[in-house]
Amino acid sequence: MKRNLAYVLLLMLATVASCSFTNKTFENDDKDKLLLDLITYVLEKGHYEPKVLNDDFSVHVFEDFIDVIDPTKRYFVASDIAEFEKYKYQIDDEIKNTDITFFNIVYERLMQRMGDAKDIYKEVLETPFDYSENESISIKYDEEPFAADREELKERWRKQLKYATLGTYDSKISHMENKEIESTDEHDHNAHSLEEAEEESRKSTETTLDEFFDFVDDLERKDWFVQYINTIVDEFDPHTFYFAPEEKEKFDTSMSGKFEGIGAKLQKKSEGAKIVEIISGGPVWRDQRLEVGDEIIKVGQNGEEPINIIGMRLDDAIKLIKGAQGTIVDLTVRKVDGSLDVVSLTRDVVELEESYAKSANIIKGQEKFGIINLPKFYVDFNDYSERNAATDVAKEVERLKEEGMEGLILDLRDNGGGSLKTVVEMAGLFIKDGPIVQVQSKDKGKDVYDDKDERIQWDGPLVILVNELSASASEILAAAMQDYKRAIVIGSKQTFGKGTVQNVIPLNNMLRSNEHGDLGAIKITTQKFYRINGGSTQLEGVKSDIVVPDRYSYIDLGERDQSNPLGWDKITPADYKAWDGYIDYEKTIADSKKRMASSQQIKLIEENAKWLKAEQDETEISLNFEVYKEEKDKDKEQSEYFKRLTDYDSKLTFQSLGYEEELFTKDSVLREKRNRWHKFLAKDVYVEEAVNVLEDLKMNNIKQGKLASVKN
Fold first, then answer.
1. Statement: residue 350 has pLDDT above 50
2. Please, how many CA atoms are within 13 Å of residue 595, restricted to the half-sphere of its CB?
3. Which of 132, 220, 361, 420 has the fewest CB atoms inside 10 Å of its own CB, making it the most exposed?
């Protein structure tokens, strides 16, 4: 991977050195044009399948940008679109000439129309809604035309606001009927009539919209320009993406699972920044003086004069609060009880534990199995020797072995992927040696990524759980273990289907000098990966050995349902030999399918999946209260019916490992998280079937006289 990235960057930088990318080419204040020029250059030179910038490309950018900024068609009117359309076939030429006229015109009109929208929703919400009328609203906005004029737009807003208010109105009526009136927001008081309930519902909707437009007002022109840039970038493929400087930092944090700060998640409020979650193990959690609901109103740096953050953009407030490990931040806080306090905290590295691998023992009678849940293939890009998914899974495998596991479940459900290096190392834990994945770069032959370490950390029974949201690195691991016939894959008919590799390229590296500040980075698709059998996972994903339905079975979630995905293809297979262990694939799979066919829980899951699909396809919503109530009652009845899914009990026992039990004495939050996870696992029919498969594999192992052993 590194040598391919080095090749791409070397090519780009060498070319840049011979070009005129200096600030002399651009006006000092024209950062947007510089950004557009750099990004299109990188895409042309580095993308795996660069697009031709022509009229077709221009049309797609035009339509997609309008859809991104006005998806419900409640800002622009038809005359605006007609005015914009003169640029419909010119955007490709503008991109080539670093011209942003189209963006400027659309942005300026959007700001005007959003100002109009504030007046419109205020006007609409002055008039009571008549819920006895037989009218409906279509929420299939892509099929709706833009409003012809302000009056038609106002009518569209009226229906949308009536729809938004309907649920609140229903809630208040129910409270009245039950004579148990509760306050749900600052505008609520006890409603004693239908008129009062309707009025309070409108006020609640108005408050929500006020908060939304307050958030929009915080957005700057550069935030909207990032949307435009990403509309262009998205035409290349769904995983190529431009990161503004702040977003690049968030991406790095999500991949490493840690950040430097106080360990609290914040939400903007008009009174300041409200604490909505405290991260276990962080400075706020350790200090114990702050709690969820407290509002930060001023921020100071180690005794310096504090800065008032009321009305400040949340991102700007967070920049003041975050900081390097070991530095001190002084927070002036309005407590939940209304009192004011100043809390000084020493910033620290905060680890987001729920991003990391975790494991548990599974007890079934006299047998003991292990399960490892891996949310993502995380890595610290700045220091691979720091915590990463491969080393963490290796540790959990070793701990489970020490506690006597007889078979292992690796749970990759909802795992969207991550680092390619970590998945290659992780696969090597389960085979002696050999190829794991094949990678092909633009205009180059294939590279084969091998496990060259002959040690096997676990050679016993192995099951991998996947679903429709298992993607990228998850698919590489599942595919490799499937091709080697090393593991049984249980889950959805097929996984997500992301068979591409991305590299993150800092744009500052593309310039000799730069007076515009941090330009951010672009995540660009530079390679495709292939199974060792030669097939791509792109679009097709990995097909499970044992297919079981889940709630996503009929919902469009995969790569094939994204915009502009790359196509499926195949290359020559790598040289590998199938696992020579104990697995009897055909019999194990056949026995599992018999169990699944007779499972009432599986049948109920399938029924639930079909119902969810039907609900998703319902796009015409009645605004008549009686019809709404009738539909709601039907939905509630169905929801109650499907609640039986959570009543399921696999009769399996889940236990934390010894090292975690010791941590629980100091970390009650971690204990509660693990207890909840274990309760969830006990209701999980897929985990139950995975244990059944492990038992079958274990019996095959015994019959063949091959007890699982470990080579140290």
1. yes
2. 18
3. 132
